[in-house]
Amino acid sequence: MSNPLEFAQTAVSVVLGRDHLVGRDLDQMTIQELEASAKVNEERLRLARQAAWIGGFGSGLLGALSVAKMMR
Amino acid sequence: MSTPTSKALLESLRQADHTAAGLIQQPRGLSIPTPKPPADLVATPGIEDSAERTAHRANLIALVRKQQEELPVVAADQALRGAVIGGLAGLGCLLLRGMLVSRPPEVDYRVEEEPEADHLVEEPREDYDE
């Protein structure tokens, strides 16, 4: 999580389903483009994993607290 | 004991064997022998054999497709794990807070006075006098 802005952009793009390879034909890409895409995808995967974990953790925490508050 | 006939037969078999081995080694049909690249050409960065380049490209395409496919699965998996851990953490925090903040139950040590039983005593009714 080096850059918070990049992290937020990636999280939003993952949530919205945007992809940097939309409309691109992999068979028509050069090796350099494919290598760059693989690196970007790896980074996206890492950031998406972190964002999903943090989001899930927050949701679970708030959910547990809300349920406990309702049961009082 | 070999006869001249068998000697000739052996010789012809050897010749056929050599010929067949030569035939196998020869390129047949439309096969074009691929010249090996020079030793320094393979080691040069950016310059590879065509087959290696094709294989590398196929591997990259497979890798990118796999990454594209597993992205939502990984995100959902991590979100679920985070939700479970977050829920457990929230419940653990509540439990800890309840243990630390809770006070001992207040016990009332005062002796309760027994209620007067005046209302239980029946007053004599005037009806019985008659």
Unreliable stretches covering 5 or more consecutive residues of chain B: none
Rg over alpha carbons of chain A: 17 Å
Proportion of strand residues of chain B: under 5%
Structural class of chain A: mainly alpha
What order do the SSEs of chain B take from the amino end to the carboxyl end, as H and E?
Answer: HHH
H/I helix tally of chain A: 2
Oligomer: heterodimer
Major β-sheet of chain A, in short? none
**How big is the Rg of chain B?**
51 Å
Q: Treating each run of at least 4 consecutive H or I residues as one helix, how many helices of chain B? A: 3
Order of helices and strands of chain A: HH
Q: Looking at the structure, what is the overall shape of chain A?
A: elongated
Question: Explain this structure to me?
Answer:
The complex is a heterodimer of chains A (72) and B (130). Chain A has 2 helices and no strands. Chain A has one domain (4-71). Chain A is elongated, with a radius of gyration of 17 Å. In chain A, 75% of the residues lie in helices and 0% in strands. The model of chain A has no long low-confidence stretch (mean pLDDT 81). With 130 residues, chain B is mostly helical. Chain B is built from 3 helices and no strands. Chain B has helices at 4-25, 39-43, 50-101. The longest helix of chain B has 52 residues, at 50-101. The mean pLDDT of chain B is 74. Chains A and B meet through α2 of A and α3 of B.
Question: What brief labels describe this structure?
Answer:
heterodimer; A: 72 residues; mainly alpha; 75% helix; B: 130 residues; 3 helices; 0% strand; rod-shaped
